[in-house]
Write the structure tokens for this entry.
Amino acid sequence: MENLVLISAKEQQIRIEKIKAAMLQQGIEAALISSNASLYYLTGRVYSGFALILAGADAPIYFVKRPVHLLADTAISIRKPEGIPGELQVRGVELPQTVGLELGRLSYNMAERLAKAIGRAPADLSAAMAMARSCKTPFEIEKMRMSGLKQERVYRQVPRMYEPGMSDYELQIEIERTSRLEGCLGQFRVQGEDMELFMGNVLAGDNADAPSPYDFAMGGAGMDPSLPVGANGTPIRPGMSVMVDVNGNYTGYMTDMTRTFSLGSIDERARYAHQVSIDICHALQQMGAPGVEAKALYEKAEQMAAEAGLADYFMGHRQHAGFVGHGVGIEINELPVIAPRSRDILAEGNAIALEPKFVIPGTGAVGIENTYIVTESGMTCITNAPEDLIALDK
Amino acid sequence: MENLVLISAKEQQIRIEKIKAAMLQQGIEAALISSNASLYYLTGRVYSGFALILAGADAPIYFVKRPVHLLADTAISIRKPEGIPGELQVRGVELPQTVGLELGRLSYNMAERLAKAIGRAPADLSAAMAMARSCKTPFEIEKMRMSGLKQERVYRQVPRMYEPGMSDYELQIEIERTSRLEGCLGQFRVQGEDMELFMGNVLAGDNADAPSPYDFAMGGAGMDPSLPVGANGTPIRPGMSVMVDVNGNYTGYMTDMTRTFSLGSIDERARYAHQVSIDICHALQQMGAPGVEAKALYEKAEQMAAEAGLADYFMGHRQHAGFVGHGVGIEINELPVIAPRSRDILAEGNAIALEPKFVIPGTGAVGIENTYIVTESGMTCITNAPEDLIALDK
């Protein structure tokens, strides 16, 4: 029998207060948490079951389906959600009227079943959880820094992984292997409907311009129509750029970093666009601070791209992505969203990936992406591999 | 502009007829398909959007959000689900009263939004789609055979990947790399709530007995509490078994295969249990045919395990899995389910993974798993790597 909660009581208290503050703002009196990402946020571990946070109570109540050995004094064993009301009654706990469920994540069938089990109409907890998780605690930021350091170590080794004649796919496999040897957990957590991607994107040449089904910054045709995104087997040839944007989940918290590599002599406009991407990142980093509107960062990026004469290539060419950055943490797409119609306001503790990228036909994708922490005094970069275009053939 | 549909008209017709037959059985007059797995089934590709099948019409109507280049004559471009009714009206298409949505997959919020957009109460399409997909077409079976051949090739190379001193995790990384070089797509499609697993399981020694959050045949503690399943860094030592059950998605269709490897001299009871697993597979293969009850296969497996004196170790030891096999195809958990309370009846075209496994404390997991196709005359194995316990140290 081990502890269910793997974070310190103090750390958990901070997180619960964030969740309660967000619940209050949304008029939710109790939160029935069920998703892997949110259970991990609350407890420091993924398990199968639920956690109930009552606005008026100090400690959460944990309901565990599996693993069955997690039946510490602090947890209640249940086989089905229908077991929840009986267990609460036995303990003299009364459910309030408005119980939030993760309606943006639970399937319709499971949400209906849960709501019926607890005898309440479904209220949506998704926005409150996203809000709570958007400002990371110092402990979470340390986890992200650690992911950043490991991801950096992988990216620095990319030129050593390259061998003449390789395809984008073959290079990606070596990057995956090195990532895993450095401790990458592999799991790539995306929230939302059906966004599938395996271990990230390595895009060589014009494959970067193949539009994908998802609102990712870049596309790629993929190796098979069942997974139409990313590397497509393009042989890496002189004059091509190779954009590497792979999984940074080393600690349960992800960093998001992109670097661009090149083979042989690269078109002047592509080199220029790469520098503009670096300049945009630096400019946005200067602007970013608590209280700044997320959309102002987007507008600045778009304006700089336009001033550089690169509007047509900004965030894609045949298909454009609708953002230039996004929150990141347990999942790759958290708040705030750095997009034209975003209403988000930057706040201390936000972890934000900025990825002003360009697709230059005939060369490929260029640009960088870094993950930044919003601090009281500005934005700190936690993905510090060299930013310049890096030659694969030294 | 390319074709949206990547399978032949004839192949698609067979699949549509299966879907319509299942819709009829469930009283559904129109199906609004939205998940990656189901869109792939219908069209041979994953895209972002919807497909509408009307019981009374021949051809589906395709609504595409992304990729934007997929705007062939056969597809309708939409930005949001709210655009669907207007597009139908323009084309003179009237929606019937009962429109099935994938309520077992769609989030509650998205299902509500879709239902509101089309002005219908949500009806559940999940069971009909699962039913349609459970009997594979000859073309789908060919895709599965191809996955099986490639997966076999990887498993045969495992002893060559092993190096003395390796941990389970390090061996898994080499298996992952070899799998990817053979064309493994990586994506591991699981249907249902939040079942996370990266590229499969390599379990050495007693880590096989660590209970996981999921109803998988085997557990493993994993490398991190954010992903508590699979390899945990156990150094592979003499006397240990190493069970390899990794991703077989090479074609969009997965095969599921497990083989057990050993280092040094293995406990007699573990060797015996491994042979019992092989015997169970062969016995179930003999029994399996169209019309046979799925639960009869489970009962036979359980009975053989008990007769061998191995009931305590069957399908886990500290935590037991509640099945001995499952359908497999585009996803790892399809119909039929080979479990004690299953009401499924085997039918021609079913693809079924059988995995009677044992966990022997002090040694680890032993046993095999194969994927079989149910044919008119019985079950054909499509994962034919050698079944015996294989020595890593030749």
About this structure: Chain A has a mean pLDDT of 96. The radius of gyration of chain A is 22 Å. Chain A has ten helices and 17 strands.
